[in-house]
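FAQ
Q: What does a multi-component entry look like?
A: The components come first, one per line:
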Amino acid sequence: MRPEALIFDVFGTCVDWRTCIARELAAVLPGADALALADAWRGEYQPAMERIRAGNRDYVALDDLHRENLNLVLGRFGLAVPDRDGLNRAWERLDPWPDVVPGLHDLRGHAIIAPCSNGSIALMTRLARHAGLPWDCILGAEIARDYKPRPGVYLASCAALRLAPESVMMVAAHNDDLEAARAAGLATAFVPRPMEYGPDRQSDLGPAQDWDVVASDFPALSRQLFG
Amino acid sequence: MRPEALIFDVFGTCVDWRTCIARELAAVLPGADALALADAWRGEYQPAMERIRAGNRDYVALDDLHRENLNLVLGRFGLAVPDRDGLNRAWERLDPWPDVVPGLHDLRGHAIIAPCSNGSIALMTRLARHAGLPWDCILGAEIARDYKPRPGVYLASCAALRLAPESVMMVAAHNDDLEAARAAGLATAFVPRPMEYGPDRQSDLGPAQDWDVVASDFPALSRQLFG
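Then the predicted structure of the entire assembly, as C-alpha cells:
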C-alpha cells in the first residue's frame, strides 16, 4: 500500500482547534468559561453543515457558518464581543499538533499531500500559512460544494488529482470520516488525537475498524507507509 | 499598492514550457524538429479552449485538451510515439525560469501566492512539486470550470480567497491576460519573458498598458511591492 496522495482531515487531526479557540475567546472575554464556549461554538458545526448536506440550504463556506454560529453562541451565553469578524478568524490561527509539520514534510517526500477538510479554500490557505502546513494543494468541501462525510467530497478530491480513489489515502483522527472515505473507495489511515476534546473525551480513542493503517502520529505514518 | 494575494499565469510566466516540451519531444522522437513540434502542440491550445469558452463544449481539464492536441499534431506530422500518455505528462515536468523560485519565496513572505492558470489542479499540483513552486493553494481554470481570459476565472480565484478583486494582483508575461484581469477589477503586474517563444518572438516584449507594476523578474516584483 503506497498511496500516490494522502488527504487529511484538519480540525482535530492536524490542528488543536479546542485549545486555540479557547485561548482566543479568553483573550476577548476575560472571565468567561473559554473551553465551554469553544465547545459550544464547535457544537454548532455539525448541525450547520447538516442543513447543507440534507439539501435544505445551498453550499455556504464554513467561514460563514462559523460566523453565524458565533452569533448563536454569544447570544446563548449573553456575551458581547466588539469585533466578531476578527474573532471568527481565530479558525485561521489554529496551531498544529507537534508531530504534524515534521510528519507532513516526511510524507510530502513520497506522495502528494492535501487537506480534505470541511474548511474553505480561503480558511485552509490561511491556516496553512499560520501553522506551516506544507500542502501541495487545497482540496475538500469547497471544490465539491458539499460537506463531509458526503461521498462527493472525497470523490471530488480524488478527481481533482486525477487519481482513482484506491490510490488516495484519507488520514483522520475520526472513525466516521474514515468510514465515509472507505465507502467511497479510498484507503484509510487512523491517527488518534486523544486530547482533541480534552482529557474527558470518550470517542475516537482508538480505531473502530480495521483501517489500512493505524499510526501513533504523522512521522510514524510516513515510516509505516514508505519505510 | 500592497496586494493581499498575488495570482500568477504559469505557462510562459513561471515556467519555460517551450524548451522543456521540445526536450521531451526530442527524447522520444529523435531527428524530428522538436521546437516546431512544441510550437505546433502549443498552437492547438487556444483553439481547444476556445470551444469551451464559447460554450460549444463542457469544461474539460487542460490535461485532456493537451492529450487530444498531441494526437492532432502527431497525426499532422505523421509521427508515432509509443507512450502518448507519458509524453502528455511532460506538461507536469516544466522547469521554472531561474528567478521564479527565489522570487516566489520572497513574495510569499508578504502575501498569499497561487497560480491562476488554465492548467488543472492536478497539473498545477504536480508541476509545482517538480519545479519547486511554493504555492499556498491552487486557483485558476478548474475552480471556475472555464478558461482564461474569461472573467469568471479571475473572479472565482479572488472569491476562493474571500478577497475583493482590487486586493488581488494578477502577474503575467502576457498583456491579454492582464487586460482581462484588469477588466475584472484586479491589480496587474507585467513581468516580461522575452524568450518564451525563442529569439524571434514579436509579441509581449513590453507592457501594452500602464499596468500597476512592471518588473524585470519576480524578486524585482517583490522589492517593488513590498520594499
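Q: Is there any commentary attached?
A: Sometimes. For this entry: The first strand of chain B starts at residue 5 and ends at 8.
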